Each structure stands twice: as C-alpha cells, then as structure tokens.
Automatic annotation (TrEMBL), chain A:
Signal peptide: none annotated. One of its GO terms (cellular component) is endomembrane system. It comes from Polychaeton citri CBS 116435. It comes from the Eukaryota. This is AP complex subunit sigma. Keywords: Membrane, Protein transport, Transport. Belongs to the adaptor complexes small subunit family. GO terms for biological process: intracellular protein transport. It holds the Pfam family Clat_adaptor_s. Residues 1-157 form the AP complex mu/sigma subunit domain. It is found in: Endomembrane system. Its main location: membrane.
Automatic annotation (TrEMBL), chain B:
Residues 908-923, 1013-1028 have a biased composition (Basic and acidic residues). PANTHER family: AP-3 COMPLEX SUBUNIT DELTA-1 (PTHR22781:SF12), DELTA ADAPTIN-RELATED (PTHR22781). It comes from Polychaeton citri CBS 116435. It is found in: Endomembrane system; Golgi apparatus. Keywords: Golgi apparatus, Membrane, Protein transport, Repeat, Transport. Residues 380-405, 733-764, 823-876, 888-923, 938-1044 are annotated as: Disordered. Belongs to the adaptor complexes large subunit family. This is AP-3 complex subunit delta. One of its GO terms (cellular component) is endosome membrane. It holds the Pfam family Adaptin_N.
Amino acid sequence: MINAVLVFNNNGQPRLTKFYTQLDTAVQQRLLTEIFALVSTRPNSACNFLPLPPLLANNAASKSASSQSDAPSLVTYRHYATLYFILISTSTESPLALLDLIQVFVEALDRLFENVCELDLIFNFETLHAVLGEMIVGGVVVETGLEKVVEGVRAQGRVAKRPVNESRGGAGIWAGR
Amino acid sequence: MFEKDLYQLIRGLRAHKGNEREYIQKALTECQREIKSQDMDQKGSALLKLVYLEMFGHDMSWAAFNVLEVMSSSKYLQKRVGYLAAVQSYRPDTDVLMLAENLLKKDLTSADKLIISLALGTIPHVINPPMANSLLTDLLPRLSHSHAAIRKKTIVTLYRLALVYPETLRPAWPKIKERLQDENEDPSVTAAIVNVVCELGWRRPQDFLPLAPRLFELLTAGTNNWMGIKIIKLFSALIPHEPRLIKKLLPPLTALIKSTPAMSLLYECINGIIQGGVLESVQGTTEGDEVARLCVDKLRGMLVLEGDPNLRYVALIAFAKITDSYTDLISANSDVILECIDDADISIRTRALDLATGMVNSMNLQAVVERLLRQLKTAGTASELDDPSNDRATHSAIVPMADDDEDGMQANLRRREQKSNQPPPLPTDFRQLVIERILEMCSKDMYGNMNDFEWYVGVLVDLVRQCPSGAQEGHESSLGQSVSSAIGAELLNVAIRVKAVRAEAAAAAQSLLMTERREYLFPPAGTGGNGVLFAAAFIAGEYAELLPDPAAVLTSLLHTSSGQLPAFSLTSYVQAIPKVLSVLTSDQQSPWTASRKTHTMLFTARIIHFLEPLTLHPNLDVQELAVEYLDLMRLASEASSNQPTEEDHVDYPEPPLLLTQAIPSLFIGMELNPVARSALRNVPPPEEMDLDIPLNSNLQMVLQKAEYEYELDDGDDEVYRLYHERSTINGKAFGAKPAADSLEPPGQGQSRSSSYQAEDLDEEAIERKKAERRERYRDDPFYIDSERNSGVNTPMHNILRDTNGGELDVDAIPVMQLKLDSSEMHSDVEKRKPKARPVSKPKKRFEIVSDETLGVEEARASPITSSSPAKSSALSRAKKNLLEVDSSGLSSLSLSDTGAVGPGASQHDFERRQAEEEEMAKAMKEVERLRLEMQRAQERIQPHNAPEEGMVVKRKKKKKKPKVEQPGDEEAAIATAAIAGIGTNEDENSPAGVKKKKMMMKRKSKASTGTSEKLDEDGKHWETEVPSKPKRKKKRSVALEDDG
C-alpha cells in the first residue's frame, strides 16, 4: 500500500502532505526534510527511486529478510518543473506502476487547471487533496483512469483557477499592501 | 484586523518576505480567535488556514473540537474543509474521535454521494478499533451503493477497518468476494478489490486460493494493466501454496512478457515469476530453462537500454532476487551488472553493489574489488557542504517562504526541468557502504573466494585512505570510525589466520602507523581512518619480530601526537610499545656494547617520557597500562644503566637479564589464535563454582599475609611454581587444539616451552625477582588463596604474563575438563568447518585458520540459534517502522472457512450487534421523547424570562445535586432527575425504564452529537444540558467560554 504522498517544490516548501498513517506533525516535517535532502541532490539523469531516508531506514534492515512486509520500502519520486511528487509505499506496489500513478495525478491536475503550475496548487490546495482523494483512499489506489478522476473532482464543485492578479506582476500589487 | 481567507493568507505570506515566521504567528493567533466564532463561514475559513499552516509544521491538534464542528456543518464546502482537517490533524489519541463517530455514521448514510465520499475518505485516517466495530454496520450497505465510486471507496475503507480490527473482515469478506465475482461490476471497482485483495493476500495467501480462477480470468482478459500488475503480485504470493498454479500461469505470463507494450507489466511478470519461486520449481525442465532465459534476456535488455535509469534500477532488483538460484545466469550477465557499479546514479550503484556482493566468486573477486576501489579513488568526496545530512537535516523546521521565483512558479508542470547531469560526488554513507561490501565480499565463506592475500592486505591499506571522514562532533564513533575499525579487524583477521602473509600484514601495520605517512593515509579532511590504528598497533606489537623496521615503528608509536588518540586506540599503542621494545633490545647473543646500552637507554627514556603523562589519562585502561609499563620501563632503564659494558672491562659484557629474559617473557607466550565467538559460552562452568559465595571470606587476612610474604620474600615462591605448572598444562592443551596445530611449525611449541624453562632456571636473578615481586604486589587485591583454588582459578599473574592473553584465558579455564575429549574435538572441528580448510586455488595456497571453539558447541549453540530468530522477530515486532500500517492482526484471521464454525460464531456476534443497535435506536427515541417533554415542562415553568445559557446550567446543577445522593450511578440520578423535572406524569416510570436509559446513557458518545443537533432545532439553550455525560460537560464549558 501507499504510506504517504508528498508534494514539495524545489526549495522544499511543502505543497501537499498526506500520510496514510497517523504521524506527529513534527515527525512529518522531519521526514519531509529528509526526503527533500535526498531528492534535491539527484541529477536529472538519475532514476526515480530514492534510498530510504534515515527515519524509515532505521529498522528496515531487520525486515528485509522477508520479501514482503508492512514496512515502507520504496520511495518513488518524479520531478515536474518546480515540483517534486513523492510516493512512499510498501513492497506490494509496483515501482514502475507508481511512476505511472504520479503521471496520472499530474495529468489530472493539468486537466483540471489547464496548464497547471505550482501557483495553482498553492492557491487550490483543497482541490489538490480532492484529486488525490479520488485516486487513493486509505493508501490503496482506487482509480487510475484519468477521466474518472477528473470527473470525480468536478462533481465536487467548480475548480477555481488561480486568481488572475496573482500572475506575473501581481506580486507587486500585493507587496504594496 | 480584517478577516482573511486562505487566499489572503497565502498572498500575505508571499508579501512578507523575510519575516514569515512573525506573520505566521500573527495569522495563527487570528485563526485561534476566528475559529471560535459563531459564524460558520469564518470558522471554516480559519480552519482551512490552519490546515494550510499545518502542512508547514504548525500543530493544530488544539483545534480538534473545532474541526468536528466544521465537519458537522450542513454546507458541503464547509463540511469538506472539516473533513480535510480531520484527515490531516486527527491522531489516534485525539479524544474528540469518540464524538466524531456518530457524525461519520450519519454522513455514511447520507443521500448525497459526495458526503458519503467524504466520510469514506476520512475513516481510514481516523479509525480505531472500537470505532471500526460500530461503523461496520453502516459501511456494509454502502457496498451495494448505486455509484461505483462509493462502492470502491467502501471496499478500501473496509480494508482499513480490518487492519485495526480484523474481526470486521469476517462479515465484510463474503460481500467483497461477491463484488469481485460479479462479472458486471464496474471495472474500476474490480480493480480496487484486486488492490485490496493484493494487500490482504500476502498475509494469508492460502485463504485467497479459491479466488484464483476469477483472478486468472481477469488477468487473461487483460483489460487493465494496473490490475494485471496487482494480480501478478498476488499470484506470486499464492504460488508457493498452490504449485499447480505454475503450470497454469506460465503460458499467459510468457505470452505477456513477449507481447505487452507496457514496460511495467512486463517487469511485474518477470518479477512475479522470480518472486513466486517459479524458476526454482521448473528448474531443469526445458520449459523452465526457456522461461529463465527469457526473463534474464529481458532483464539484460532493461540494463543496457539507454536513457532509462528506472528500468536499470528495477532490473537490478530483480537480478538480486535470483542470485542464489541462478548464479550462472547472473555471471553470464556480470559485464552489464558491473557497468552499473559505475553508474552515475547512486541508487543504481547501490543496487549493483548489492548484486555484485552476491555475485562474486574466486574468479572475478579481484576484478570487482579493483573496480570498486578505482571508483572510490577517482570520485570526489562530497564536501561538507554538499553532504545533505549536514545542512538540511539540521534545519529546525520548514518555514513557509515567500517564493522569489515568480516565473518558476508558473512554469508548466508538464515540462521537465533541466538540471546539470553531473554525477554527484560520492556521499559519505555510500563510501562507507562500498567499503563494507568490499570487506564482506572478500571475507565471505572464511575467505573462500580469496586467491591472493598479499593483494588483499594491499587493498585493505588502500581502503583506509578511502574511509569517509567522520570528523563531525558526535559522528566520530558511529560513522568513519566504525568502518575503519572494520578494516582494522579484517587486517587483524588476516594477520592471525593466514600465517603466510603475516609478514605482509605486519608491514602493512607499520605503514599505517608511521607518522610520516599519516598525512597521506589520513587526509586532513577527516580522521575517518583512525579506527584502523587499534588493529595496526596490535599487529605491530604482536608480530613485532616481523616488522620491517621496528625502531621506526617505535618512534611513531611514541610520537607526541599519539597521546592525542582516542583512548581505544591508545590502549593498543601502550600495549604495543613494550612489545616492540623487547624485540629491539632482547638480543641475547650480541654483547652489551656501549652503543647498545646508549640505544637502549634512549628507547626507555623516550618510552618513559611518553608514558608519564598518560598515567593521568582520563581513561582508566590507558592509565592502568601506562602505570604498569612505566614502572617496568624505569626498571629496565635502571637495569641497563647499571649493567657493565665492555668499557667497564668485563670479560663478556652480558646484556641485562631484565631485557633479554624478563621483559620478553611477558610477551612471548603462546600464539594467539582466533577463537569462535561462541567458544566462551561453551566453556562449562566448574561445578563447584558458586558466584554467590565470596571468593575468599577472609580477604583481609590474605591481604595482610601477602603483605607479610612480600616483605619476607624468599626463593621458594609458590607463585612461580604455580605458574610453572600451569604453563605446561596450557602448552599441552593448546597443542591439542587442531587449529593451533596447523598454525605452528613443529619446532616452535618446543622452543616456547623451553623458554618457560629457562625463565624458571633464572629465577634467582635479582632484577627478575624484583620485577616479579613488584608485579605480584600489584596483583595482590586479586590474589586468590592458592590453597583453596590454585588449580582452577587463573591468577591475575598469568594474565599479566600473557599481556594480551584475553583469548587465552578461554582455553585456560576449562583445561582440566576438556583434555580428555580433545581428540574428538579435533575431528569435530574438521567436520564442521570444511570451508575453513584451505581451498585449492589455481595460484597460491593459503592456510586459513578457522575459529577455535569447544567441542560442545553443537549441543549448546543450537538452542541459542533457534531462539535468536524468534527473539529478533519479536524485537522487530516491537519496533514498528514509522509509516508502517501494522497488518499483523490479519494474519491470524482465517477467511477460508466461510460458514464453518468460526464465522458462524461471529455472524452471530454481528447479528447480536445489529439487534443491539436497534434496541439502542428505540431507547434513543424514548429519550428524545422524554427530553421534549422535559423541555415543554421547563417552558411551562419559566415561560416569560427565558434564562440565558449560563443560568440554565446553574439551575440544572442545583437540581442534580440532591439527586446524586440516591443510590445508583450518576446517569441514573440524572435520568430520574429528568423524569422528576417533567412532572407527576412520569413519576410512575418503572425502574425498568430507568435501567434502559442507563444503558442508553452508556452509549453516550455515540448518541451525543446526534441528539444535540436534534435538540438544536427545538431550542438552542438546551443543547448543552441534555447529554449528561462527562464529555458533554466538556462541550458545555467550551460553549460557556465562547459566550464569555
């Protein structure tokens, strides 16, 4: 199953955190920093699988004996423009399929926002959660079809675009306040 | 201050660049205020802001109750915020969860599918065992909801229920199975079920075998690759339990491998074949070989495919799984695998390294190791700043930053960013891993693959230089030191086990110790290699006679910088110093010339100079050794200055006996052999040993006596005799050890014992006596009454004599008992350790000494080894991984026997629950009715001045108090109070009615939220009073605060 879904940008600023196991906020943040530290140093040519961050690797060694277990063993990521999408999962997930899953997630966002960019996600993080909720429930993938995901989110209400004046130059206006 | 919504919060954040922290603090305070507002819109937007800030690590657990309020809003958009907040912020110990339960139950039965979806999406995050049980009744009907989206989410939610409370799976499973078998079911629901079954499957595969036909059907229909992958994963868990599946599965799987355009499915087919153990079971048949070749060919294709590192990575993982069974196939592909060791990507390298470790044999070991060494040498070390653990991990928390790159933020996500393709410098932990793997590869099977130990010693020295620096505070002992001490241990191992290269090992130790080379070996970047010094110094001391240049080594050991070494290494240094000195000065043949005397005096003087400050060393071991050797050196210095040389016109200027006999005899003893880790455990405790009785009840007297003896010391020394006796026994017992035999050339044992003889003959030498006396004096506190224990106990004296004889002691203690079966032991060891015997090698033959152990090992070790896995599994059970969802409860839940005894009972249980629920509902209605009447009565009493909330509460309390004194619990009291309040009509209420209410009240948490809402419609001021539970009191107080 999938243990966590994280989205953060090139500076490690979180844009979405979803943990399918209840964790303390502080631990969540530590995990986030550890993963960001791992992911941010990787060249683009590198593969999309991360070694386990120290927080998760602690007792992974003892578990590796059996091929399957409940312990998260796979950290998959994809990097799109300014954002990193990360999935932490156990061995019951297929690594290559997870990469495709991230792709579906991003495509769904793209479909909903039309040329999605980081700003859309910052201002509509509820929608981000909604999209994820259509695809993954309780750590289990429930939908992989792009159309159905988009349809499911749209059924919940209109998806707002980012505020117009937030685009280029918009910052100036707000900075004046 | 104006209210802000999330938009404004984010904009504000972006505008307040530089002082975000401050801004956030302000925003949080505002939220705290706004969330208590009566205005649901304001509450909702405050909550949304909190959820946003929670993402950055600002705890919002304090708002748990407000979350619940927003969750129960009637507006969908507010409800959605509330549910999102619950998902993000509720923890298993959040106490309002009990109150949320009722709301969840209500929303699950909502007519709006969106609201059901919200509840379904939230339950997996907040579920706990008691909730699981009660939500089950509401979830099960959702399995047949008209919307596929609800059905599939329900299935997953049921799975999460089963994780926290496995029993819930019993009633749910038949329905899930029914959904799976239904051909007309929506394919996405089927896929979700397959996902869930796959999660459940690996815990109890045998229960899912009946599903195999349907799954097979789904697999061959091949409509959905995602589902195909999951089915294959599931099958790989089922195959070990149903071997017939292999035959059935092979054709479709091979067909898929050959035809599918989806790389992920292709890979999972291969992976499934490997993981399911298909290859092992069809090994040997033509079909099996064909499949194996097909898999390996495809994997090889993935490895060499340009431009897709992901495939390379997963292919290596798959390869790693078949290293044991298909060594030849792997070796055939070793070329491409080794390529991956040099891959730019650390993840791939790590995998390749793992694989290479399993792949090495005597033919390719050197090539692989050379390759790794080259990699270590050429790759740049990650600088301190680059090392992510150095800067990022020390970040205290993530602070939302104003984003400075507007353009970047608008970059389309579909486009991948271009970064430099430079391989990152090797991170420290990878370096460490490589070194560990090299050591592991080389030492595997007791050096079974090693052809050339001289080469290996050279590799070890090279590795020291590559040790990652662990120089940062706090990391010192954990990181670099540990890997370098592992190298040291290897060096020591080789020196001890492989006699043929002992000289090389000693030379290597010398090169490591030389201070002139320190700059080179231990680059200033770090002291990572320092851990090796312990072993190096030990080797230099133990095999001092093999050192190419003992004088230079002594100089290095005595270098002022040595005093700064960690205590651990320093003890080894201090031990080695007198050993090297004794090699330098003990020559008995050559005359005691003036120059020799000067040299000796110089050495001793320098040693004394080095040791003196160490007598005050904070580490006790160092201190003790320094004190001991300091005295010895002073004696030696004295002896050599007093000894006449030829200039003093002596006929034959003899060197002082202290130097030629006494000091060497301290160190030259039996050779140190490797002793098995378990050997000590196998030493049978002497029967008469009782650790509870004092060793010597009149220790004081003994001490006094010793003091007396010391003063009166004469030649007839009991200690000497004792020592003499023991040494011969030792020698014999030792000689009987098989490994020792193989180690020693025939002459040496003899020469050793003769040196013991000589020592005894020389007893009368004055200096020697003096030295012995001093030593004995030092031993006194430990000296054991020889009359009682002389045969069994090892006098401290003996230990001192074989200075590093820790291992020797193991042999020494049980000598008497073991002597008899020593011959059996010999053959035993031979039998058990066939690998330890030298393996025939094309080029050289090295004798590798195996661990010495005691004959009883088998009998004793077996219970220990059998118990240890259990222990470790228990340990790992206790230590749960961070993100892990523990599903172990499921493994004890059998699903296969549907309709049999087990489920029958639980079915009953389930029905009983349902009946209970109905009764509950009835009781609830009754209470509802009573409450309404109560309210009406109240209105009758105070029709004019409707009191404000606080007053009502007070009045209520007054009413309650006298009633509480009645027998029965508080609920009963309150119930009767309520009845009394309603008026005479209700006075006839039977005790049974009260009882019923009592029971109902116990279900307070469930009822409370619902009832309070209902009451809201009737009259707001009643809301806080009605529930009589403590929980409700809490709510009441909150409400009061709001007003205040």
